[in-house]
Design brief:
Helices cover about 40% and strands about 20% of the residues. By secondary structure, it is α/β, with parallel strands linked by helices. The protein is globular.
Length: about 130
Amino acid sequence: MKKTKFSLPTGASEEKTVRIDAVDIPSGFAEMPDERSLKERAAYILVNGMPVLPVCREEDGRYRLLAGAADLSAAQRAGLTEIPARVYRFSEREAEVFSVVERLRSDSAGAMESAYLMKRLLTDFGWTQE
């Protein structure tokens, strides 16, 4: 079987401010942090500012979150109505790969979630350890 090389998508993007109620969290993200952690993160965001979250523009004018579900939830908890976002123009497949890789890179992914995400890269997207 011929091996194909696949790299992380680097679609065109722009940084802009988007309404928080226009951002959807896709199913399949890890559980949200507990209430205490969410409050702490919300306080941190209010003091230090909101990190830029990666999103993908959908056809209906909404945005799909690619990584940072806990930060988005904390921003909602903090009462923010808009967030800074890096808006990517990805195909469905590219958005999914980007999301999986970003979730793997996060420190919050536990051992079971990391194993599941690695398996997805191998089986669903044909990645190898190379």
